[in-house]
């Protein structure tokens, strides 16, 4: 195993007032950042069957990408670090590294992992293995190669998040698509412990993100709920201390023009929320600026022109946003369908009245 010290993935998030960022969507450029051929070449030492990037995270100087060993497939998994320009790949851990540790219980399948969530905190990589009914969470220390099981089984849990200080992990347990869900937490240094529920029932929670102020952002996609008609589809902030929910955006109302059920979403360091909405009805990639409103950045047609058709962004961690400077933002997509990583570069400008970006959360 390569003993690689990762640059801390947790960016320095702004918590004070910031100048407003304006997005020039008309100048956005969509392109292939890491091709399928380059991705396969980067994994040549682990003899991959196919390129299937599943998870992408940006640090200050690198991209962390996971190749997905889906359940029942022959795709070999690996965790790879690239420079931001998509060059100089280094395999941090292969699937065999993780399995050979002897720490994993993959539902009796010794040849396969199936990631449902993956977060990075410095040299520690946390991942949720949902193989069979196990759904257990592990942490890989990249400096030692040690894999530790953090928690015991939690039925139906999906997604994974970590607090800004790295001390607490979060997950969502959902009873079927659109069903009730609960948010759970556990100290990140736990060894074979149990999750603790801290939220009331949430109808149809999806896409768990931990905000820089410690609260959680989830999307409610309870479109099939015929019982609780008061539940609104939209983005919610969940207080990490009390579990109380606050509706941030009702996606059945303006500025939304169609049901907005994100395939994937990302949040940048200034509190702007980026959404790939290909199943909800708008068929666009848009941004919800911290200063308010909704701006379309690209269409599904533009996305599919790079992928050869088809969309496979339904996994957590498939999308990442990075502030480059005052003049641009980059949004990355782990395109498992075509085995490549895409990049959307959006010209921006900064100025105008200050915005207290995190007050809304």
Descriptive notes:
The protein has 361 residues and is mostly beta strands. It has 3 helices and 26 strands. The strands form 6 sheets. Strands 1, 2, 24, 25 and 26 form a 5-stranded antiparallel sheet that branches. The longest helix has 8 residues. The protein is globular, with a radius of gyration of 19 Å. The N terminus is likely disordered.
> pLDDT average, as an integer?
75
Question: Can you tell me the residue ranges where pLDDT is under 50 for at least 5 consecutive residues?
Answer: 1-16, 102-111, 223-230
Structural class designation: mainly beta
Discrete helix count: 3
Query: What radius of gyration results from the CA coordinates?
Result: 19 Å
Beta-strand share of residues: 35-45%
Oligomer: single chain
Provide the helix percentage.
Answer: under 10%
Strand segment count: 26
- From the spread of the alpha carbons, the general shape counts as globular
Biggest sheet overview: 5 strands, antiparallel
Distance between the termini: 40 Å
Q: Could you spell the SSE succession in H and E letters?
A: EEHEEEEHEEEEEEEEEEEEEEEEEHEEE
Name the descriptors.
single chain, five-stranded antiparallel β-sheet, mainly beta, 3 helices, 43% strand, 26 strands, 361 residues, globular
Helices and strands, with pairings:
Blueprint (H helix, E strand, L loop, with lengths): L16 E7 L5 E6 L1 H7 L10 E6 L3 E6 L10 E6 L6 E5 H6 L14 E7 L2 E6 L6 E6 L4 E4 L7 E6 L5 E7 L5 E8 L8 E2 L4 E2 L1 E6 L5 E5 L13 E5 L6 E6 L13 E4 L5 E5 L6 E5 L6 E5 H8 L11 E7 L2 E8 L4 E17 L5
Antiparallel strand pairs: 1-26, 2-26, 3-4, 4-5, 5-6, 7-8, 8-9, 9-10, 11-12, 12-13, 13-14, 13-15, 16-17, 17-18, 18-19, 20-21, 21-22, 22-23, 24-25, 25-26
């Amino acid at each position: 195993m390569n003993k690689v010290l990762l640059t801390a993935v947790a960016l320095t998030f702004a918590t004070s007032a910031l100048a407003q960022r304006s997005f020039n969507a008309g100048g956005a450029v969509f392109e292939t950042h890491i091709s399928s051929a380059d991705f396969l070449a980067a994994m040549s030492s682990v003899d991959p069957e196919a390129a299937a990037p599943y998870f992408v995270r940006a640090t200050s100087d690198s991209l962390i990408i996971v190749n997905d060993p889906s359940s029942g497939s022959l795709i070999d998994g690996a965790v790879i670090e690239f420079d931001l320009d998509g060059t100089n790949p280094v395999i941090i851990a292969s699937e065999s590294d993780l399995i050979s540790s002897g720490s994993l219980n993959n539902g009796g399948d010794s040849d396969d992992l199936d990631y449902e969530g993956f977060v990075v905190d410095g040299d520690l990589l946390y991942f949720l293995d949902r193989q069979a009914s196990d759904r257990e969470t592990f942490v890989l220390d990249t400096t030692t190669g040690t894999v530790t099981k953090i928690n015991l089984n939690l039925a139906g849990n999906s997604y994974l998040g970590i607090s800004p200080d790295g001390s607490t992990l979060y997950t969502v347990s959902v009873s079927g698509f659109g069903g009730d869900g609960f948010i759970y937490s556990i100290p990140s240094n736990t060894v074979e412990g149990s999750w603790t529920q801290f939220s009331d029932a949430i109808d149809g929670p999806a896409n768990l993100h931990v905000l820089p102020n410690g609260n959680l952002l989830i999307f409610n996609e309870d479109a099939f709920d015929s019982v609780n008609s008061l539940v609104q589809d939209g983005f919610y902030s969940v207080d990490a201390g009390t579990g109380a929910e606050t509706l941030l955006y009702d996606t059945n109302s303006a500025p939304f023009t169609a049901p907005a059920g994100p395939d994937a979403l990302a949040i940048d360091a200034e509190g702007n929320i980026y959404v790939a909405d290909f199943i909800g009805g708008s068929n666009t990639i848009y941004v919800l600026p911290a200063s308010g409103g909704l701006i379309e950045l690209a269409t599904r047609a533009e996305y599919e022109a790079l992928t050869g058709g088809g969309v496979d962004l339904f996994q957590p961690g498939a999308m990442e946003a990075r502030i480059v400077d005052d003049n641009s933002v980059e949004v990355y997509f782990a395109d498992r369908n075509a085995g490549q990583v895409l990049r959307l570069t959006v010209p921006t400008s900064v100025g105008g009245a200050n915005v207290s970006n995190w007050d809304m959360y």
